[in-house]
Specification:
With about 120 residues, the protein is mainly α. It has a domain of about 70 residues. Helices cover about 65% and strands about 0% of the residues. The protein contains three helices and no strands. α1 runs antiparallel to α2. The chain starts with 13 loop residues before the first helix and ends in a 19-residue tail after the last helix.
């Protein structure tokens, strides 16, 4: 990884990384929705409310499945292949460490000619 974070060449592959991160966040939110609906179902007192919560639980399960399928089709998730998932997780961890090590606020940030000059 090039430590020059302002260099546009460093954006290569970023849309895919961002998409996979957003999808993973969405998957975790869907999983939380399933968990919350299941808990709510055990706390529901009336049959009518139980039916509504059960329907929401089923919808949450379908959403979780759809997100999982999307992520597997894109190669962002390997729930049935631990070795492949480990490789993805390791790459993600290494990228995170590299980003954390970057000097995001360097002393010299002059980029004359790189971006539009708003002073003219």
């Amino acid at each position: 990884m090039n430590n020059d974070y302002l260099d546009p060449i460093n954006a290569n592959g970023m849309p895919n990384l961002a998409d996979s991160a957003i999808a993973l966040d969405f998957l975790m939110a869907a999983k939380n929705g399933v968990r919350n609906c299941a808990i709510a179902l055990t706390e529901t007192a009336t049959p009518e409310a139980r039916t509504i919560v059960r329907n929401q639980l089923e919808q949450a399960l379908v959403l979780h499945e759809e997100i999982s399928e999307l992520m597997m089709s894109k190669g962002w998730l390997h729930p049935y292949n631990v070795n492949e998932q480990f490789k993805l997780d390791l790459k993600s961890a290494q990228t995170t460490v590299q980003i954390a090590a970057m000097d995001l606020f360097p002393d010299h940030t002059s980029r004359l000619g790189t971006f539009a000059d708003l002073n003219n």
